[in-house]
Design a protein that fits this description.
Number of domains: 1
CATH topology: Rossmann fold
Number of helices: 12
Helix content: 25-40%
Distance between the termini: 32 Å
Radius of gyration: 18 Å
Order of helices and strands: HEEEHEHEHEHHHHHEHEHH
Mean pLDDT: 93
Structural class: alpha/beta
Number of strands: 8
Strand order of the largest sheet: 1-2-4-3-5-6-7-8
Shape: globular
Length: 328
């Protein structure tokens, strides 16, 4: 979950960082990099809202079965399509791959909405209806993992498999811890972060392997923070945090009967939450896998919370191998 107290490494990184992007021109949602051309569709939601959802679609795979359910990639908190940059090409060789910007993030619309996992699951279902996808493999990272599990609980007939990349939802919190986190992540919190703080967060919490992709994501985040669109994203972040806490899924994991792959990095610094839980990611991962009826666990050495970005080859191979296995 999102709150983590300052650590010695974090403070050291913060002290040594200097702004590189905050003086550059602002970037709006249409300026964000994408691995494939962005498409847009207006989606009618169950609550009466109409929201513009941005997405990419690889189309039929050059290899594999073109009639197989597509892989639908659902990003995490404060993320976007581009966090899947190392998955799109390799996975699209064998599967149709579709990825969306969740409402509130990326190039999608930013309605005044609750942004809870059930609300997001309904938005994803309506979007899939709109683009003609009846059944899919849901691949969710962090918050996207909790959204994917919520979708599977609500509409299991539409989920072929689940792939959960360092998912939120396995870790549970006391009422006091949940209240503290919701209070901390108020609706302006994300806009208050400085470039130095963001760099420290990216390099000591979110990613374990620095590189050009991480630097590009950091630049986009810093330059987006100047825009009205990002102020709306800050609202989405706050409500998303509260929504994950208010709509837990752990007690219902036994109802998810579809084959499920769970992937964590051994060095995840965000799950478990160091302030309220502590310990290692393997313990949380095993707790979730033990509660699921048909799940297997892959731990990737050295990878952090954004495990698919830190170790893309190992992650992609785990996904492709999992999808090749016969259903039990």
């Amino acid at each position: 979950m999102p709150f983590h107290p300052p650590t010695a490494a974090w403070m050291l990184a913060l002290a040594g960082a200097s702004p590189r992007y905050s003086q550059r021109p602002a970037m709006g949602p249409t300026d964000l990099w994408s691995p494939l051309p962005i498409q847009h569709v207006d989606v009618n939601l169950d609550d009466g809202r109409v929201v513009d959802i941005a997405y990419i679609d690889s189309g039929p795979p050059p290899e594999g079965d073109p009639a197989a359910p597509p892989l639908v990639l659902i990003h995490g908190l404060s993320s976007s399509i581009s966090y899947w940059e190392y998955q799109i090409g390799p996975l699209a060789q064998q599967h149709r791959v579709i990825a969306l910007d969740l409402p509130g993030y990326g190039a999608s619309g930013r309605p005044d909405a609750p942004y809870t996992p059930p609300w997001y699951a309904g938005a994803v279902r309506s979007w899939l209806d709109q683009i003609g996808v009846d059944k899919a493999v849901l691949v969710g990272h962090s918050m996207g993992g909790q959204i994917s599990m919520t979708f599977g609980l609500l509409w299991p007939e539409r989920v072929s498999h689940l792939v959960l990349s360092a998912p939120a939802g396995f870790e549970t919190f006391s009422p006091g811890a949940a209240h503290w986190m919701k209070t901390y992540w108020h609706e302006l919190r994300a806009t208050e972060a400085t470039e130095q703080e963001l760099r420290a967060t990216f390099t000591t919490l979110v990613f374990n392997k620095p590189g050009p992709g991480v630097e590009r994501l950091l630049e986009e985040r810093v330059r987006m923070s100047k825009t009205a669109a990002f102020r709306a994203t800050s609202v989405a972040v706050s409500r998303s945090v509260a929504g994950m806490l208010d709509h837990p899924v752990f007690s219902r994991l036994g109802q998810l009967y579809m084959p499920t792959l769970v992937v964590y990095g051994t060095d995840d610094r965000m799950i478990p939450n160091p302030a309220f839980t502590g310990g290692r990611s393997r313990a949380i991962a095993q707790r979730g896998v033990d509660a699921l009826p048909d799940a297997r666990l892959v731990m990737i050495p050295g990878a952090g919370h954004t495990v698919h970005h830190d170790a893309p080859e190992a992650f992609n191979q785990a996904v492709l191998s999992f999808l090749r296995q016969p259903t039990r």
